[in-house]
Inverse folding.
């Protein structure tokens, strides 16, 4: 990562964490399955017991996909009394899905996100905007969480989590706070004109020099990114209910602007910090659910 | 007859003073935050080098992204029109001109008079322009001017993400962690960019002879990669970064003649 001599704080670095829903017991249960989503920026793992969420973990993806998969799997097992050998079936997904050593099968993240969103919010979900580290996807699904159509952006950082990290670093605002900071303005400024993150950075520096506050610059950038995401959703067609998954689901600045542009509210964000499910882990959640189905099939049921 | 062309580029301003088709002087400054002042300065320097007063310049035209800010100018000519004109002036056999600047790239198809017939542009994306090489040089901690010579020492290529500067940076960091040698990484950067430029040119159709101009044409590493990718020879003028300004000065001469009639 680039560092300036004055300030070596890594504003882009988000917290890695794991959660266990401790009121659930796995004793005597058969279908203990896992989903491992090795994304381009974050790796996520989820463990399910008989198709019920039990534990999950989120970590940063390193330069080596198999290592990242192992790391996040160890993190999710931590704090549970499960061992790797207790897991009956694992599905790998995400950018690095073919490099998940413990996976019995790899499934695309599009299928997993739809399945995961269906589990997190219920069968009314029809449109999912998944904003990951390196790409944005707009997905349509039916009431069972099966994908009916989807669209994704070209390989371009505009509107992705990685693009947000670049701006967190540039503006020296911790990544977890950029959503709130971007809303801390008197009036919404016009969006930055460049969608390319490299050029938007130059434009942002110009705006700071003109005397704009960091929050205002961030709002202008967030707005431009939200426009891009909303366009993708409109191209695939917006059908309610609408939800956002992936790391940017936690960026209130993005979600509220996308809602505003599309003129539709998303289903409420679960309280992932305290006992609720986690939309950032939707892909791994869907993968663990699909793993359950595959496990039962393998038993001949 | 003396005319001048000013190319108000995003990164640098270029001025060419022309007398009867021959270049009298060239000058270049950093655009900075006051491109108009930078252009004034470059223009004065060009006049000094040519040893002529401003009054001798009968017609000035501007081109480039900031062309509306150009001093002394009687009008504008598009960058596509300017490089087509200059490309055929420099190489009469040229029918395709590829121009790669700091933040934009374009390819122009033209006829034997240097009249533009068709064009494609890469804009609002840093991946197909000089900014890509600059960002990768920073990630690699190599001086921009050393990137080209370094890449020529590479023994093999390692592919990186060509389609986005931000992701390209991550890829370069990954290659550094994998302890890939710098020449190989530099080569990967140029190959990636050549891929992107080549696909842009193919949308237009490769119509020989092909001329490569713009500041990036001075980079031997990029030139080698693009030649390999397109599988053809590329004609490159001296001072390729002045091609837009030269084109504007040539078009200025035509317009001056036209207005005399």
């Amino acid at each position: 990562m680039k560092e300036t001599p004055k300030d070596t704080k890594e504003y882009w670095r988000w917290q890695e964490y794991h959660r266990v829903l401790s009121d659930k017991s796995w004793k005597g249960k058969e279908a203990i399955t896992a989903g491992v989503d090795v994304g381009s920026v974050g790796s996520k793992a989820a463990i399910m017991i008989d198709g019920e969420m039990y534990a999950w973990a989120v970590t940063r993806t390193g330069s080596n996909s198999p290592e990242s998969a192992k790391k996040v799997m160890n993190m999710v097992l931590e704090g549970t009394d499960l061992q790797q050998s207790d897991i009956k079936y694992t599905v790998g997904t995400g950018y690095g899905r073919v490099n998940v050593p413990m996976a019995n099968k790899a499934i695309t993240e599009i299928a997993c996100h739809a399945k995961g969103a269906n589990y997190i919010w219920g069968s009314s979900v029809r449109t999912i905007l998944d904003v990951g580290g390196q790409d944005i996807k707009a997905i349509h699904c039916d009431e069972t969480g099966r994908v009916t159509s989807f669209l994704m952006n070209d390989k371009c950082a505009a509107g992705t989590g990685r693009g947000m990290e670049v701006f967190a670093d540039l503006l020296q605002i911790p990544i977890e706070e950029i959503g709130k900071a971007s809303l801390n303005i008197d009036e919404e400024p016009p969006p930055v004109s460049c969608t390319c993150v490299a050029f938007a950075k130059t434009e942002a520096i110009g705006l700071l020099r003109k005397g704009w506050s960091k929050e205002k610059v961030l709002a202008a950038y967030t707005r431009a990114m939200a426009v891009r995401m909303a366009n993708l959703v409109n191209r695939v067609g917006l059908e309610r209910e609408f939800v956002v998954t992936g790391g940017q689901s936690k960026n209130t600045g993005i979600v509220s602007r996308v809602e505003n542009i599309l003129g539709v509210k998303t289903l409420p964000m679960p309280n992932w910090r305290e006992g609720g499910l986690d939309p950032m882990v939707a892909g791994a959640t869907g993968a663990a659910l699909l793993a359950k189905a595959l496990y039962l099939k393998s038993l001949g049921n | 007859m003396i005319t001048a062309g000013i190319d108000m580029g995003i990164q640098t301003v270029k001025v060419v003073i022309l007398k009867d088709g021959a270049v009298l002087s060239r000058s270049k400054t950093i655009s900075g935050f006051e491109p108009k002042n930078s252009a004034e300065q470059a223009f004065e320097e060009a006049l000094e080098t040519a040893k002529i007063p401003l009054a001798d310049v009968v017609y000035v035209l501007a081109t480039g992204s900031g062309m509306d800010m150009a001093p002394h100018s009687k009008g504008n000519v598009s960058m596509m029109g300017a490089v087509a004109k200059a490309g055929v002036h420099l190489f009469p056999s040229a029918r395709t001109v590829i121009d790669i600047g700091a933040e934009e790239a374009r390819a122009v198809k033209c006829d034997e008079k240097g009249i533009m017939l068709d064009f494609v542009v890469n804009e609002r994306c840093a991946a197909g322009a000089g900014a890509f090489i600059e960002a990768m040089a920073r990630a690699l901690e190599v001086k921009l001017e050393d990137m080209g010579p370094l890449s020529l020492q590479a023994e093999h290529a390692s592919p990186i993400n060509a389609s986005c500067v931000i992701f390209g940076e991550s890829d370069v960091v990954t290659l550094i962690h994998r302890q890939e040698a710098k020449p190989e990484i530099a080569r990967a950067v140029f190959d990636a960019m050549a891929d992107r430029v080549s696909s842009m040119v193919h949308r237009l159709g490769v119509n020989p002879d092909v001329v490569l101009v713009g500041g990036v044409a001075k980079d031997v590493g990029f030139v080698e990669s693009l030649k390999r990718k397109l599988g053809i020879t590329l004609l490159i003028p001296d001072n390729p970064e002045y091609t837009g300004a030269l084109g504007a000065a040539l078009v200025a001469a035509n317009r001056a003649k036209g207005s005399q009639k």
